[in-house]
């Protein structure tokens, strides 16, 4: 009898749990549920979501084992599951704080440099793209880029950037972007490119803000 266990299965399980947690509305609901048992209508009121959205996110959280339910008459009450959820959320908060600290340091360092790492807003970027003469540089991983990116963007992950500078046009302005406002990849990319003589800015809010605004994105097969 062969052992069907795959050493990659725990990583797949971790990825699935991360996917379930990877929506800020679900984290908002978890934050409220962590304070005590609540019915759906209270969670709707506390989160500001619709009943349908709240129910959908709660089902995802329940599927991942993050919350549990019990009936009280006609009401369904949601509470936190007994697993180590508090430790997981604390770890996420600590990592967010860590990233915020890196960004604060990057901004402090940039203020002390002759050339500051200038940002560009989503609206200004849309206008500049219409005018042309600008290259969008996505410094996220190839997998993230394939799932969705700004139209016309070039993907060079940050780890590969220094070795692939020749692929970037030296006669055009560059705009580097990554996941969101607290993603340090675009900050590091802009600093590297500036040091190499490129004219570069970074998209202040990143891909998640662009997508949330309902603007067009492209995917790669």
From TrEMBL:
Residues 6-100 form the HTH arsR-type domain. Signal peptide: none annotated. InterPro entries: ArsR-like_HTH, GlpE_sulfurtransferase, HTH_ArsR_DNA-bd_dom, Rhodanese-like_dom, Rhodanese-like_dom_sf, Thiosulphate_STrfase_CS, WH-like_DNA-bd_sf, WH_DNA-bd_sf. The keyword Transferase applies. Transmembrane segments: none annotated. One of its GO terms (molecular function) is thiosulfate-cyanide sulfurtransferase activity. Pfam families: HTH_5, Rhodanese. The keyword Transferase applies. Residues 130-219 form the Rhodanese domain. Keywords: Transferase. This is Rhodanese-related sulfurtransferase. It comes from Pseudomonas saponiphila. The lineage of its organism: Bacteria, Pseudomonadati, Pseudomonadota, Gammaproteobacteria, Pseudomonadales.
